[in-house]
Amino acid sequence: MNVASAELEDVVRAIGRLAASTRPFAATLGPVGTFAPERPVVYLSVSGAARELGELHRGASAGPLAPPAARPPRPFVPHVTLSSAVDPPLVEACLAAFAGYGRETTFTHLHLLEQDTAAPERPWRTVASPALGGSAVRARGGRELELSLASHLDLATAAWARERWGEYARETYGASWRPDEPFAVLARARTGAPGDAGALLGVATGEVRGETCECERLIVAPDSRGEGVGSRLLDHVERYAAERGCRSVRLRTIDGGEAERFYAARGYVRGALLPRWRDGRDFVVMARDLAGRA
User: Fold this and answer.
1) 203 pLDDT exceeds 90?
2) Distance CA 180, CA 207 (A)
3) Mean pLDDT score of the chain
4) Domain count of the chain?
5) pTM exceeding the 0.70 threshold for the entire prediction
6) Contact predicate 215/249, CB 8 Å
7) Same-domain pairing of 192 and 136
8) Which member of 5, 13, 122, 223 has the greatest number of CB atoms within 10 A?
9) Domain span at residue 193?
10) β strands within 153-230, DSSP E
11) CATH number (domain holding residue 106)
């Protein structure tokens, strides 16, 4: 269902309450179906969780999530959309391509999405993602609390957290403190054609945190490794960090792995060892001094 931007905060609270009242549930995706010829939609049906889906549907049919009053009623068909704009002659081909498809999956969250209609690819981003069954009331210290679980903060709560963290940080670190500054560096194949962005070959992401730049991820497409893409991404991160006044770039990588050798060859020095940091594997903190890079 679509909701108005002006009702966003009410909707976030509504789906939070709805998620809290529903436990995670298993369902079957498939077989394939379509709403054609009325609508050019091809989808996977969702079955095996009629009670849970019915409760979610009823809960989403009131308040800010309710459909427009002027819209004619239509049956509730649980489904996962594969395409919402299939050319009529291709509908049968789509049905044939997915014939017999089926898989079991477990639903654990509700998601509120927002589409960036100004971007060329009109991407969707998650605004809120409360966990099913993720709310609990706990009484401690004389005050009753409702605790809820989500995959990340919704926009309004994230704004509140940034403001409170800023207040705390200024009190703790002084007037020179500045907020963390996320960054992303993209490497694409150069085509020379106007308006052609080229294939994505690698990405580096992280945050500038005061005088330290945290490089959190650096990944290169498998078929482009060994061609200098990673080195050029890292160099760009270092130059950006130096321009932002950072004294060093810091990162984490698997202890003794190929990536550690890659960073060591580029001037990064081992620091603290992080035992069993991820998936039972040891990681190491590495850093490079940026003196002279600005």
Assistant:
1) yes
2) 6
3) 88
4) 2
5) no
6) yes
7) no
8) 13
9) 180-289
10) 181-188, 200-209, 212-220
11) 3.90.1140.10
